[in-house]
Amino acid sequence: MAALPTAINDFKIRNIDNSQSMNADVVVVQQTINGIPVFAKSATFLIKDKKIVSANNGLATSVTSTSKIASNKASLSAESAFAIAVNRLKIKNQADYKFATNNSDKKDF
After folding, report:
1. CA distance linking residue 59 with residue 10, whole number of Å
2. Which of 13, 42, 67, 91 counts the highest number of beta carbons within 10 A?
3. Predicted local distance difference test score (pLDDT) of residue 65
4. 3-state secondary structure the chain
5. Which residues of the chain have pLDDT under 70?
């Protein structure tokens, strides 16, 4: 198998779950580009006795361009992204929804 281009060869472990019933670890990795998670691009591996015994590969093998990714800095605030999502999803009663900022709720995936 040919090596992936560096731009899509970055991954972050999202979760490791030890399955006692299977006597194995279930590991979920998230694909990233410049540290930014790639939407809907993750893979799940079943690891037993230090060997991958099963894989559900949902990773991208190529990208058309990374030129629009100038850095790993957000170009939108979380509040702006939330407002755009609410508008694009055409959620009724938009005024009823507010973006809550609470640092204790942030999770690092």
Report:
1. 11
2. 42
3. 62
4. CCCCCHHHCEEEEEEEEEECCCCEEEEEEEEEECCEEEEEEEEEEEEECCEEEEEEECCCCCCCCCCCCCCCCCCCCHHHHHHHHHHHCCCCCHHHCCCCCCHHHCCCC
5. 1-8, 64-74, 99, 101-109
